[in-house]
Model the fold of this input.
Amino acid sequence: MVWAQKLVTELGDSIQYEYDFQPAVGEVVDILPGVKWVRLPLPFMLSHINTWLLEDGDGRAMVDTGLGTRTTREAWDSIFSSEPGLDSISRVLVTHLHPDHVGCAGWLCERFNVDLYMPRDEYLLCRILVADTGLPAPEEGRRFYRAAGFSEAQMERYIAMFGSFGRVVSQLPQSYRRLHEDRSLHIGDFEWQVIIGRGHSPEHACLYCPELNVLIAGDQILPTISPNVSVFPTEPVANPLAGWFKSLHRLKTLLPDDVLVLPSHGKPFRGIHVRLDALIEEHQTGLDQLRILCREPKRALDVFPALFKSKISDGNLIMATGEAIAHLNYLLYEGEFNIDTDDEGVRWYQAR
Ligand SMILES: [Zn+2]
Done:
């Protein structure tokens, strides 16, 4: 185990990283009283996820669990055997249902015979997505992506990928404990408040400890990248971007600017207010670009240049499409855009 060196921080118009160090994959670092930082590998462009172990009586409460793959399970095995006491997990907390966060939760709860703590919408949706594994792509999904402008080849890829969620998420326990804002958690010597965020996932839990002045932020706030805000075929006219904006404004009023943010990706930092402003600004800029681009009718697939700097590949097409529709739906709800569906079922968006 390593103690991270603390950097001197000054708040200003940018974020400040707290440590001059980040753990290697599978390494455990003590960063605060009773808080350990663990980094696990991810086989994506995003190379890692941070998880947190909180002293909890004789054991440790885990926050987020890593992708449900053999590589992650082996990383946990080696962490648990690396020093005495680390193999005593008291409970498993999960911020939200994305596979890099929830993937090993079922496996860990079974292994240690402990409870899973999760927000209700996250738990239920996760159970549904795991149950979809191996099923054929539904007509609703095909209709949704056809409407966005998918080509035959893109549609084939969606159909082939459908139901792959459960391949990287171990089966969840059949019961759980709900994380919600009315109930804070006593973990070891500290009290942690649950703050629910919207937009990136339906009911994303952040954990805030006023005494430590620390926020475990999950994916709700990341230091360098903007979390994906997407619409999916199950709720094609959802407006997650409105929830996202609302949550970010709310977090700004709830949290002090000098709170130490522990994000799921990247490094712990201070300067949450400036980061929240930047995240809001980024999406507002995207909306402005859409207003210009959609002076002529456009399909969801046509608006990527307004929202993304990098080229969209097959690998991130579903996420990019979901994010494009989130922005277009927002402008539809604001009454700024009209929509037309052509004979092929393709939807065309235009600024009024
Ligand atoms: Zn996520």
In short: Residues 96, 98, 200-201, 219 surround zinc ion (CB under 6 Å). Residues 285 and 307 are 8 Å apart (CA to CA). DSSP finds ten helices and 17 strands in the chain.
